[in-house]
Design a protein that fits this description.
The structure is a homodimer of 146-residue chains.
Chain A: E1 6-11, H1 14-23, E2 37-41, E3 46-51, H2 52-59, E4 72-77, H3 81-93, E5 97-104, E6 110-115, E7 121-126, E8 131-132, E9 138-139
Parallel strand pairs in A: 1-3, 4-7
Antiparallel strand pairs in A: 2-3, 5-6, 6-7, 8-9
Chain lengths: 146, 146
């Protein structure tokens, strides 16, 4: 079964971003390289913070600052609406920008969006229709994770 | 331990993107909503394909087509250099654009980058310094997944 092993966020200020994600509970691993890359072990993926220019060079593409949100969102599913509210509050107090406060969706969920210091979008979601394991994995109704 | 539960890619053509990811081994779940969203169960995350405009509306932000790569990359770690080459070849034959062919990195790894039909960046990587579980999870040297 395919998956995503690691998500790399291109950032403008590594120290600022590391502090932001630390405030959200991610721990910087000692294998990180000072001033270059911060690796943070999650339960099911690794989050990597890396200079935007370094990422562009590695991938061989242009990544100018556009001032617009990229069409991608990383979601953290939680087990209740209260947990969505709490996660948004934590992210906001850590310096994230709540771009859309939590709201009930037409499909019965409850979600909100935060932009990190570089504008990367994070969704905090409660979806009562999806299974949710203790390690944060979502299990689709007919699916089987792991 | 924090994590990412689900990654949403905003796409221009849901059918095209669903076919692309299906060719890479992701299976569309029956809980998907025809013409609106495709959910694909991975071993450790769910991949969600969703209209770029719908994602922008949900998040309450602008997501214009910029013609530039977003400063984010989703990585699939594999267990050998040959697996990197094979993954890049599969993605290319599925309609992905190899933006940087696989190359040996200065840190001892071997990586390459593919852009999906909307330009979303995927990295295929072999990193001999990281642990890799059967389900695709990366375990940092001093880390503990799960």
């Amino acid at each position: 079964m395919p998956t995503v092993s690691l998500v790399t966020l291109g950032v403008a200020d590594l120290e600022r971003s590391t502090a932001f994600y630390a405030a959200l509970g991610w721990q910087r691993s000692p294998v990180s390289v000072e001033g270059t890359v911060a690796f943070m072990q999650g339960s099911t993926i690794v989050l990597s913070l890396y200079g935007r220019d370094d990422l562009a060079a590695d991938a061989g593409v242009a990544m100018p600052v556009t001032g617009h949100a990229a069409p991608i969102s990383l979601a953290v599913n939680v087990s209740s609406e209260a947990d969505v509210d709490a996660a948004l509050a934590t992210a906001a107090s850590a310096g994230g920008r709540v771009v859309r406060s939590a709201y009930p969706t037409e499909w019965g969920g409850y979600i909100g969006y935060v932009a990190d210091p570089d504008g990367h979008l994070w969704e905090f979601a409660h979806n009562p229709g999806f299974g949710l394991l203790d390690d944060g994995r979502v299990v689709l109704p007919d699916g089987e994770a792991g």
